[in-house]
């Protein structure tokens, strides 16, 4: 129970102390700014940050999620778990998948931030505040900084972060500041004023200070609340007269005052305080176990009752925490008085944490206790779990903590190397791997050496050394098979398959990946299985095995959708979009590409963004939209160059060359091809050779061009790359036609068609048909392939005229939604012809505010506040207004009201057909018509039909009643005039 209570106490809002001083000026600041994405409260220890935030969250009407951060949260996976738990405590019905997403191999801070934004958007509809206390403990982690930088750029409107820490976090605030989405309080704001000191001491001690005494106390403690608190313990000793002497002492003011307070305590309580301070969080049962006593609960209650700088959370089982300044003071004092006892307690604390599955804390306390062997045991036992759950920052921290004994923790360094490799830090990975190998060799660990050899192969593959990678992983496969280590064997086979594929050896690649999938299929390694399926599908597509490839791709897509993994989902959807493109389903392909790009943006993954943009560009090029294709290719190239993806850069150079070739800009096309070969000389760029052969033919070098195409066809046939082979055969037919060999051209066209039939689609032929139009035209009357040539040319022509870019890019949604609002009678609002139900308004106040503002805007903000929240302070009323306007936007789907410069006015693009406005306008016009005008009767009759009931008959606030009276009077006047005119007409 102690373990569970300690873990959940971080997410429980601390109790409101009965003698807490309300600092209204600071509360007002928070209320006035809480609608912004980020509020910062930053000051060094002793300025009352926590007290202010506790007061605010107990006072606010907003739901609040609370998370007190610890050093372990500097690990991205641990932070994800903490954030998810905080929201689940605040919103018990919420089911978060964030920890599972964070635990996936290779997940980036960008992807995790995107996943959390998506989860908030879909799971939490209303305003809420997330308090992150002690943020300074995690803010130096690069992955944490990146996570929050990405998060704050796209944080949903309903989510508001309140970050509390000792220093301003090193985050990117420029964009937030430009959009006025950040506010903050610093030491300058948090310093206690003399007036606040007078109020506090009167509240806490029942003492009345003069203004001069309060000012002297503030000067002596520099407005530092902890110093003031400690000073007030000594008021009865006339301590005020000694402030100047204290201020000039060598010891820090806090230590001096704390010592004075501590020395007045009973000896038994002093000993307990000194020893219990070893624990960062204290629960009575845990404290008894570590300190070897049975009275911890009573002494903790006594310390809390004595206001000894201790806070408490919990309802039934309490968890206590000393103010960190007081804890530091106690630890230093224990270290001076009894250093052996301090070390003993630190060791016992480490043992307790280890026994309760808290390895990070166990390692820290073992090292504090000078017990490195015990720390090493915990690290080696838990390194695999830390890696599997994404706790990579913990691995890095342990590596730094145990740098003095690096070869004693080889498993730590092996998993750290794997994490670095997944993240793309190849040099760091190699350094960690070297330490792992040395450690395994030193301890004679053969299993570890097998895994290290495999990782070396993966490292070689990532560096583009495919032949060396193959040689390395073949040995790993053999060793893993002997030792029956199926997961390691599957990983080695996947690396082998990818290396074969990079070398153009498709059949060998397929065999290796298929074996990897078969090994992983029945196992629990579903994430690794999804990647193996994705890679296998890629190779099957390249061989033209479309049905099998689609099945594998769908299985991978299902796994990633279940895990809401942004990056892998983007890649899988990209492959689905490409498949639809190949099947001629162009509109569907573009739709899927858009979803894929959205997931890639959420993941902030440049590699996948570039890949998807390339697929989109290929499709637009096939549709004949070369300008659009060129723009997308250039966007993709910029991203590929940014991440130095040589294979993709080479492909994009070849694609740009093809656009130039279609425009007969041969010199530019050849330059692009030269760059492609230059940037990736180790890759078998067959597509570059194909295009170079075509250009040679067009430039009159028919024999040379034809020879290049012949060679390319042979290479592709041997590699088993059927889709590309089909296109190469079509190009060969073109070269043969230009050589005057019609029968050879016909035979090549027949071979191209037969190869496409094996693939299951012929999009590769349709895409290239117009570039060899003269060949197909000449073969249209050939007895063997005439029908094929005719159909192919017709489909290519149709493809480029079936869809147009504006049609594809248009949105099905109107830019300006039209609303119909009826307020005469019961209030009703229709959006696009569908009534907004009362439950959709979220709250009655949201609905009332809509009718109020529609009827009266523009209107001063303070008049709105006085009408709807007259009982609240100005700051709290403003906070409620922002929350209600957010709810209104959520209901209506767009901005209805703009709050700016102390005024509420309707949004410029909001349009509503409003029956009250129509009635008032037409009523005034009809009443203004002279009695002699023959149109008066018809106009009055039309207005009378608009009198469908009392204004907002289902609402009864004062503002509605007053408006109802005015409209009733106008209705009566219209009806009376209408009756009078009827009487005159019928006499």
Task: Tell me about this structure.
With 987 residues, the chain is an alpha/beta fold. The protein has 50 helices and 15 strands. The protein has a five-stranded parallel beta sheet with strand order 2-3-4-1-5, with helices on both faces. A four-stranded mixed beta sheet has the order 11-10-9-15. α30 (546-563) packs antiparallel against α31 (566-582) and α35 (646-662) runs parallel beside α37. 46% of the residues are buried.
In the predicted model, the low-confidence regions spanning at least 5 consecutive residues are 236-251, 804-816
Number of helices: 50
Helix content: 55-70%
Q: C-alpha Rg, in Å?
A: 37 Å
- Beta-strand fraction estimate: 5-15%
SSE-based structural type: alpha/beta
The mean pLDDT is 85
Beta-strand segment tally: 15
How far apart are the termini? Answer: 93 Å
Major β-sheet, in short?
Answer: 5 strands, parallel
Shape: flat
Q: Numbering strands along the chain, what is their spatial order in the largest sheet?
A: 2-3-4-1-5
């Amino acid at each position: 129970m102690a373990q569970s209570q300690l873990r959940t106490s971080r997410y429980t809002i601390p109790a409101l102390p009965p003698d807490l001083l309300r600092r209204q000026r600071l509360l007002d600041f928070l209320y006035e700014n809480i609608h912004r994405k980020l509020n910062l409260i930053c000051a060094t220890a002793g300025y009352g940050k926590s007290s202010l935030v506790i007061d605010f969250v107990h006072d606010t009407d907003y739901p609040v999620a609370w998370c007190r951060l610890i050093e372990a949260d500097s690990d991205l996976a641990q932070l994800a778990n903490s954030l998810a738990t905080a929201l689940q405590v605040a919103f018990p019905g919420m089911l978060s998948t964030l920890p599972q997403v964070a635990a996936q191999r290779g997940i980036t801070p960008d992807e995790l931030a995107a996943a959390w934004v998506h989860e908030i958007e879909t799971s939490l509809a209303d305003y809420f505040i997330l308090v992150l206390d002690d943020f300074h403990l995690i803010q130096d982690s690069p992955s944490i900084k990146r996570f929050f930088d990405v998060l704050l750029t796209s944080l949903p409107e309903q989510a508001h972060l309140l970050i509390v820490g000792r220093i301003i976090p090193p985050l990117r605030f420029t964009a937030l500041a430009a959009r006025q989405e950040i506010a903050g309080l610093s030491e300058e704001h948090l310093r206690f004023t003399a007036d606040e000191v007078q109020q506090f001491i009167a509240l806490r001690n029942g003492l009345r200070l003069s203004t001069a005494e309060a000012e002297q106390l503030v000067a002596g403690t520099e407005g530092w609340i902890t110093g003031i608190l400690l000073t007030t313990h000594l008021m009865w000793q006339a301590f005020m007269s000694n402030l100047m002497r204290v201020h000039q002492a060598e010891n820090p003011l806090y230590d001096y005052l704390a010592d004075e307070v501590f020395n007045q305590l009973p000896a038994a309580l002093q000993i307990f305080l000194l020893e219990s301070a070893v624990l960062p969080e204290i629960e009575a049962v845990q404290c008894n176990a570590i300190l070897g006593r049975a009275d911890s609960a009573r002494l903790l209650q006594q310390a809390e009752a004595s206001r000894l700088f201790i806070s408490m959370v919990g309802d039934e089982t309490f968890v206590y925490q000393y103010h960190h300044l007081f804890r530091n003071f106690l630890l230093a004092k224990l270290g001076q008085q009894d250093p052996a006892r301090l070390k003993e307690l630190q060791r016992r604390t480490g043992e307790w944490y280890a026994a309760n599955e808290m390895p990070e804390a166990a390692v820290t306390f073992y090292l504090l206790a000078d017990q490195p062997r015990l720390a090493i045991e915990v690290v080696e036992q838990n390194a695999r779990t830390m890696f599997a759950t994404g706790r990579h920052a913990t691995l890095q921290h342990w590596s730094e903590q145990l740098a003095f004994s690096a070869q004693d923790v080889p498993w730590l360094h092996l998993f750290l190397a794997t994490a670095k490799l997944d993240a793309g830090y190849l040099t760091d990975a190699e350094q960690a791997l070297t330490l792992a190998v040395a450690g395994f060799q030193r301890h004679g660990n053969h299993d570890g050496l097998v895994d290290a050899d495999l990782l070396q192969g993966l490292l070689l593959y990532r560096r583009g050394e495919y032949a060396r990678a193959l040689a390395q992983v073949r040995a790993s496969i053999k060793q893993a098979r002997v030792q029956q280590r199926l997961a390691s064997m599957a990983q080695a086979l996947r690396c082998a398959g990818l290396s074969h594929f990079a070398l153009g050896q498709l059949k060998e690649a397929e065999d290796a990946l298929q074996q990897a999938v078969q090994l992983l299929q029945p196992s629990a390694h579903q994430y690794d299985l999804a990647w193996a399926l994705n890679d296998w599908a890629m190779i099957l597509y390249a061989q033209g095995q479309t049905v099998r490839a689609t099945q594998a791709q769908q299985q991978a897509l299902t796994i990633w959708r279940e895990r809401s993994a942004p990056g892998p989902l983007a890649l899988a959807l990209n492959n689905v979009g490409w498949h639809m493109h190949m099947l001629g389903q162009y509109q569907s392909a573009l739709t899927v590409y858009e979803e894929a790009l959205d997931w890639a943006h959420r993941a902030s993954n440049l590699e996948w963004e570039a890949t998807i943009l390339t697929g989109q560009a290929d499709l637009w090029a096939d549709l004949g939209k070369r300008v659009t294709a060129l723009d997308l290719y250039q966007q993709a190239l910029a991203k590929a160059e940014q991440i130095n993806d040589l294979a993709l850069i080479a492909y994009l150079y070849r694609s740009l060359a093809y656009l130039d070739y279609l425009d007969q800009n041969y010199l530019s096309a050849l330059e692009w091809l030269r760059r492609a070969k230059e940037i990736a000389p180790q890759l078998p760029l067959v597509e570059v050779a194909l295009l170079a052969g075509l250009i040679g033919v067009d430039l009159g070098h028919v024999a040379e061009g034809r020879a290049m195409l012949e060679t390319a066809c042979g290479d592709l046939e041997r590699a088993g790359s059927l889709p590309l082979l089909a296109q190469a055969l079509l190009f060969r037919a073109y070269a043969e036609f230009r050589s005057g060999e019609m029968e050879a051209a016909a035979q090549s066209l027949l071979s191209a068609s037969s190869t496409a039939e094996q693939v299951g689609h012929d999009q590769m032929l349709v895409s290239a048909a117009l570039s060899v139009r003269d060949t197909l035209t000449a073969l249209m009357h050939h007895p063997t392939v005439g029908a094929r040539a005719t159909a192919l040319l017709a489909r290519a022509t149709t493809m480029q005229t079936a869809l147009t870019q504006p049609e594809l890019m248009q949105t099905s949604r109107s830019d300006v939604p039209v609303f119909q609002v009826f307020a005469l009678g019961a209030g009703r609002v229709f959006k696009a012809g569908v009534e907004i139900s009362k439950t959709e308004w979220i709250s009655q106040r949201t609905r009332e505010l809509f009718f109020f503002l529609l009827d009266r805007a523009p209107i001063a903000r303070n008049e709105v506040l006085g009408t709807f929240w007259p009982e609240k302070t100005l700051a709290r009323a403003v906070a409620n207004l922002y929350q209600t306007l957010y709810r209104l936007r959520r209901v209506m789907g767009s901005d209805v009201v703009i709050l700016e410069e102390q005024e509420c006015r309707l949004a410029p693009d909001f349009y509503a057909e409003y029956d009250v406005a129509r009635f008032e306008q037409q009523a005034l016009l009809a009443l203004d018509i002279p009695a002699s005008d023959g149109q008066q009767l018809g106009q009055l009759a039309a207005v009378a039909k608009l009198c469908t009931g009392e204004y907002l008959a289902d609402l009864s606030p004062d503002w509605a009643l007053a408006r109802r009276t005015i409209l009733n009077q106008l209705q009566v006047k219209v009806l009376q005039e209408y009756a009078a005119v009827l009487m005159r007409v019928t006499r």
